[in-house]
Amino acid sequence: MIRRLPRSMLRDKRGVALIEFALSLPILVLLGLGGAEATNYIITRMRISQIALHLADNAARIGTGSPMQAKTISEVDINDLLTGADYQAGELGLYTRGRVIVSSIEQDPANVGRFRIRWQRCRGAKTYDSPYDNQLTNLLGVGPGPASRQVRAPVDGASIWVEVYYEYRPLVMASYAPSLTMIETASMMVRDRRALDVGTNGIVQVSGETPATCT
After folding, report:
1. Single pTM value for the model
2. Residue-wise pLDDT tens digits, 66-116
3. DSSP string of the chain?
């Protein structure tokens, strides 16, 4: 019986599947974690992109006034706009892990065919050096934005330019994520007539309301 034991063990295949599973388990775990990280990254980036788009869209719609009047905007409107983006971001922690910049692009009356950032509001704990906000009075006619996709403003109107910077929190490991920083931009033309010359640079100041300045 003892002499036949080695042959019977060689013919016994009951543990083959278990051994194969043990050998392939590390690979399966790595693939699973990598897939989970990639999915989480894509979803997070899509949400940040949607936040930028909604911010630009909502900023282009805000204002007080009848359909027959040019609408005015106030610091309250802008602060509500930024607060709404935080609610939309939810557990992402938009203002603890990122920074939002909202700018109003208008034509420069002193330089025909050139554009300027008339006002700009920011919120967020992170530091982000935007490549588009270093010339607040004159954008040399090209407007902010990537090459061939610069934002322009209509005559007697404005366009909204939004930048959202966000530092991604990995689900598993940082090495699985394509990048730990996300920068999404969006732009919308202001829908209704807007009173661009009221208040301070087109914004009505409200007593007790702190502007979300970028300094």
Report:
1. 0.82
2. 778 889 999 999 999 999 999 999 999 999 999 999 999 998 888 877 888
3. --TTHHHHHHH--TTHHHHHHHHHHHHHHHHHHHHHHHHHHHHHHHHHHHHHHHHHHHHTT--BS-TTS-BBEEHHHHHHHHHHHHHHHGGG-TTTSEEEEEEEEEE-TTSTT-EEEEEEEEE-SS----TTSS-SS--TTT-SSSTT------TT-EEEEEEEEEE---SS-GGGSS-SEEEEEEEEE--S-B-TTSTBTTEE--TTPPP----
